Amino acid sequence: MAGEITETGELYSPYVGLVYMFNLIVGTGALTMPKAFATAGWLVSLVLLVFLGFMSFVTTTFVVEAMAAANAQLHWKRMENHQEEEDDDSSTASDSDVLVQDNYERAEKRPILSVQRRGSLNLFEITDRVEMGQMASMFFNKVGVNLFYFCIITYLYGDLAIYAAAVPFSLMQVTCSATSNESCGVEADSKHNDTDPCWGPLRRVDAYRIYLVSGLA
To answer: What region holds the Amino acid transporter transmembrane domain (predicted)?
Structure first.
């Protein structure tokens, strides 16, 4: 084990999971998808969309497998701790022969199927919430953990940059085109400059900056 296993929490409720999935699906990709379809065409856009959907499915299975492996490691550690406690309790008994005999009789009286079910416990069942940072500390060394957090920071920065660039630009396109009674389609983008008026004395670039600062605030 590369890092220390910290305490885990309970699983998220289905409602919280639904909110997370909704946040991932309805994001900047949904906002820019019409523009991508209009520029690249239906065929290329659909092929790329299916390919990216397949890659998302594959990476999701990787995350689920990592969560299952982390749960198995946690379950195994709990079983080892429980076994050590039982060994300590048995070592303090005054008559070890009687204790061994009692354990043997209990095992003989216990149904075989129940013993098999208990022995074949699915360690990989996801019963604990293990965050990605904790999984990185469980499976990676110090260098791997630092690289993991570097990738997470880069991803979050890129996601924020997309929001900061795409959303204000889309809002500027819609509001400025609406005030000037012009179409905001693909063909209309080429005849607008950043210095064109938007709302009275405000230029299009000024409207973009207002939306950008409002979104960052």
So the answer is: 20-67
Q: CA angle 141-142-146, nearest 5°?
A: 120
In whole angstroms, how far apart are CA 204 and each of 32, 121, 184, 185, 200?
19, 63, 13, 16, 10
CA distance linking residue 198 with residue 206, whole number of Å: 8
Residue pair 31/167 in contact (Cβ under 8 Å)? The answer is yes
What are the b/e assignments for 154-172, b being 16+ CB within 10 Å? Answer: eeeeeeeeebbebbbbbbb
Calpha distance 21→24 (Å, rounded) = 5
Identify which of 172, 158, 159, 170 has the alpha carbon closest to the alpha carbon of residue 206.
Answer: 172
Averaged over successive runs of 10 residues, the pLDDT of the chain (217 residues) comes to: 48 79 70 81 92 91 90 87 71 51 53 48 81 89 94 87 79 72 48 75 84 74
What the block records as the tokens of 54 is: 């397949």
204 burial (CB, 10 Å; 0-12 / 13-18 / 19+) is buried
Tell me how far apart the alpha carbons of residues 149 and 146 are, in angstroms, rounded to a whole number: 5
Q: What is the pTM assigned to this prediction?
A: 0.57
